[in-house]
Specification:
Length: about 270
């Protein structure tokens, strides 16, 4: 009696060996290929558990209107200036002493004794001016291009708050060297804030952290400049970028939308 052979069950696709790469032997051969294979496997392992690639594709790959030019890079340039300020500020904070007797001496030590200290301090000092100029240019471009209109009103409000926070960070950072110029200039600035209606006197007392300028004032300015304002800017900047990616950018005002007839002619020609 002949035996009946039962066919073996099919192998799942997950267990099948990967097909050979065209023009190459199977598997990585050189150390570079081994490294690339390991990197791809690591990224794939992380993405399978976090699904971050979907969010990255949503942020990076989106439609851009015609007529986009270099004026649209002012926002990214402002963000880069903020990141530069954050990085250089962290290095400066490693040597800075927020005390009336040590603040000026710590700045002198950074510029004269620390390796590349003068360069980092110069980048932070002049970078603040660059950031202020860039954010004003970005706000001007947004206003003149009409990018504050529906549905981007909330993004415009967030941009105004970011402008105020940037000015606050510049003002509080000006006192930190604690020399004669920064000391008296900060007194003038605080007194001007104190002349405001209703909240002016309270804002004056809050900035001074007491009845007069002293050690508590310097600590208050340092805390606002180093911790409070940068954290708020980073959070609002992230929400700002989310709205830009979700709502898109506007076309330049000199580009008028095509009429229905022109669009119909393009469809027929295609």
């Amino acid at each position: 009696m002949a035996k009946i052979k039962v066919p073996a069950p099919p192998v799942p696709d997950q267990l099948k060996p990967k097909p050979k790469r065209p023009g190459k032997t199977y598997g990585p051969q050189t150390p570079v290929e081994h490294g690339a294979e390991a990197g791809a496997s690591t990224v794939g392992w992380i993405d399978e558990r976090t699904s971050l690639s979907g969010g990255a594709r949503w942020m990076m790959f989106r439609k851009v209107p015609k007529g986009t030019n270099w004026f649209y890079t002012l926002g990214s340039a402002t963000m880069f200036a903020f990141l530069s300020q954050a990085v250089t500020g962290v290095f400066l904070a490693m040597y800075y002493d927020p005390a009336p007797k040590g603040a000026y001496e710590s700045i002198r030590h950074i510029n004269d004794d620390v390796f590349l200290g003068e360069l980092v301090h110069g980048m932070h000092k002049w970078g603040s001016s660059v950031m202020v100029v860039l954010i004003f240019l970005h706000m001007g471009r947004t206003f003149f291009f009409g990018a504050y209109k529906y549905p981007r009103e909330l993004n415009w409000v967030i941009g105004v708050v970011l402008l105020i926070l940037t000015m606050t960070m510049s003002f509080t950072g000006y006192l930190l060297p604690f020399d004669q110029r920064s000391y008296w200039a900060s007194i003038v600035g605080v007194n001007i804030n104190g002349t405001g209606p209703l909240v002016g006197p309270y804002l004056n007392d809050f900035l001074r952290a007491g009845p007069y300028f002293g050690a508590t004032t310097l600590s208050r300015f340092y805390s606002i400049h180093m911790l409070l304002v940068p954290g708020a800017i980073a959070a609002l900047m992230g929400f700002h970028l989310y709205l830009v990616a979700r709502l898109g950018t506007t076309a330049p005002p000199w580009l008028k939308p095509k009429t229905a007839e022109a669009l119909r002619e393009e469809e027929v020609a295609a």
